Every structure is written in C-alpha cells, then in structure tokens.
Amino acid sequence: MWELIFGGAQAYQQVGLFIGALVCLGLGALVLGNVIVWRVHSLHATGTIIGVLAEGQMYASVYRYTSPDGRTVEAKSDTSTSSVRGRETGRVVPLLIAPHSPTRAREANNYSVEAILSAAGLTLVVAGLWLGHTAITAYPVTLMTWIMAIGMLIYLGFHIRRIMIPKGQRLSIAEWRKRHGLGEDASIDHTRVKPIEQLVTGADMEQAALAQSRQSRKAAPIVGIFAVVLFAVGIYQSVKIARLETTGLRAQGEVIRLKSESSSSDHGGYSYYPIVRFRTETNTRVEFKDSVGSNPPSYRAGDKVTVLYLVDNPSQEAIIDRGLFWNWAIPVFLFAGAVLLLGLLLVMLRTARAQSGRSPLTPSAAHGSV
C-alpha cells in the first residue's frame, strides 16, 4: 500500500516536471521565434508617429509610413507600455513592419528590448531542457508514470473544454484577425488615435521623464554590477569546463551518498548533491561533491556515473560528466542572465541620456494630423 502511494506521488512529481518542461520550451521557442521572425521577415520602412492608442495608462504608438507600392499606411505598435518617452507626435523612426500585416509595426532600433526578449527566451528553453532532464534522471519511468500522465491529460482536457467558447459564439479566423489588427484588410480606428500631448500635459511628461531618468541612474550601477558578476562567474565556469573537456580524463565512478544543503530559493527546502567516489588512472581513490544539486535529487546512492577530472587536482577539479550539452548548460545560463541584465542596462542608459539632452515638452508641441 505504501509503495503504491509513494509511487503515485513520485509519478505525480515526474509528470509535473514534464509539463513544466513543455511549457518552458513552448514559451521559450515562441519568444525566440517571434524575435527572429520580426528581424528576418519584416519589411523595413521609415515612419512618423501620428499619435497613440490609449488603454487606461498604457500607450501604443501609431505610425504613418509609405509602403513599397507607394501607398500611405498607418500601423500600430505591437507593444503597449506606460512610458510616454519617445512618443512625441511627428517623431520620425525606423520601423519593422510585420509580415503579412501592414498595420502592425515596431521600432527597428529597439535592440535592447530584443536582447532582453532573446535572453528571456533562451533562459526559458534552458530551463525547459533542465526540467525535462531532471524528470528523466531523477525518477524511473514506470507504469505509474504513464497512468498519472493519462490522468493529468484527461483532467486538463476536461478543464480546457469547460473554458472553451461555445461553437456558435466563436469568431471566425478572419474576424479574429481583423479584431486583433492582423492581415491585409486590418485597419486602425482613427477616432481613438490621439497625440500624446493631448492625453498628457507637457509638464506631466517632463516630470515622468525626469523621475524615470533618476530611477534609471540609481538602478543602472546595481544592474551593471550584477551583469559583470554573472559574466565573471560564466567566464570562470567556461574556463573550468573547457579545461576539463580538453585536458581532463574520464573514469567510472559511483554515487556513494547524497549531501543535503539548505536551498537559497524563495521556497526554502534543500538541494541534494551527489558525493561521488572514483579511481584515477594511478588507482588513487578520490571522493568529491558534484557542483550541481537538485530537488528532487537527480542521483541515488549506488548510481554509476562517468567522472571528468584533471590529473593534477582530481579531488577539486572533477565533475559528473553529463555530456557536452549539459556540461555547458550552466555557463550558457549565466551568460544569458548577463545579457538580459545588459539589455536592461542599455534601456536605463538610453532613458537617462535621452532625458539629459531633451528640452521640456509643452502642449503646443502637438502637431501632425491624424
């Protein structure tokens, strides 16, 4: 009876990790694919900001540009933010026009946002691969795993069916694309397009820009320090892995026990690190604690593993050889985090620099008809 309960709980956790892996991989692929599609397949054009579409305190810029066939087209930004900086009416900006949807656009020189999105997508992909790897290595795939997976799929399918819109009330694909501003026939409701200067006074815009600039100046050094630390640790880990891969030797080892250490995550708990014993080429017995811990544990006492170690310092320079991809996963994750922080730092520096050379805006600055 206890074995059945334990096996069910174990299978539940394993399937949960699989689902988490699929979600992370799907979201990561979606984010990275979106960045690639916009940068590779978009039409390049030069546009003029003619106003914004406001949804509460969120603003989406509206641009006017000339298409390759000579038509004048209005396009809405694909993102909305609460920031009013850079939305001045009449401002000329380079644009990327969405493939197959001339009324959707984004500013082409916003590389910092693309860097953040790319790093976030890469982080999600790495997290998904790690969750999937943990689900496979930390638990055995048993009959209970398949039973639990089928049960969870039925449960999810039942709840998805409950929230689905009845067939008679669903929008057609053409109607959905039109409502969301997609496709060749999509249009913008010009009655809702207003110059930002009519929605926010010049004094309020200047005050908000100054506040944002001050916050950016204060936070930028902290973000920069964290980015440098992540880069430094990533370089250290990369050099360590490179030395092991190029000059290290491999040997068969065995996990003799697990060492539990307090986790620094928000949820607390413990991480379990495998203690591995192996013999070097000179038949010297060595024990070491692997640098990667997890909860649930990825290994159990008695598991056979391949060890990668340096001949001159096997007790300090040794790891469980997980293969080329997983050996480099931690450095890649660190570099992705550093790139994410650097992208955020660029946004902060651009905000502060733009404000320092900017003259106050007044309501009379509004121009350009919509």
Secondary structure elements and pairings:
Blueprint: H1 2-41, E1 43-55, E2 58-66, E3 72-77, E4 92-97, E5 104-107, H2 111-138, H3 143-163, H4 173-179, E6 193-194, H5 196-199, H6 202-247, E7 249-262, E8 270-279, E9 285-289, E10 304-309, E11 318-320, H7 324-327, H8 329-356
Parallel strand pairs: 3-5
Antiparallel strand pairs: 1-2, 1-4, 1-6, 2-3, 4-5, 7-8, 7-10, 8-9, 10-11
Helix pairs in contact: 1-2, 1-3, 2-8, 6-8
Task: Report what the structure shows.
With 370 residues, this protein is an alpha+beta fold. Helices cover 48% and strands 21% of the residues. The chain has 8 helices and 11 strands. It has helices at residues 2-41, 111-138, 143-163, 173-179, 196-199, 202-247, 324-327, 329-356, and strands at residues 43-55, 58-66, 72-77, 92-97, 104-107, 193-194, 249-262, 270-279, 285-289, 304-309, 318-320. The protein has a 5-stranded mixed barrel with strand order 1-2-3-5-4. β7 (249-262) and β8 form a beta hairpin. α1 packs across α3. It is globular and about 80 Å long. The model is unreliable at 359-370 (pLDDT under 50).
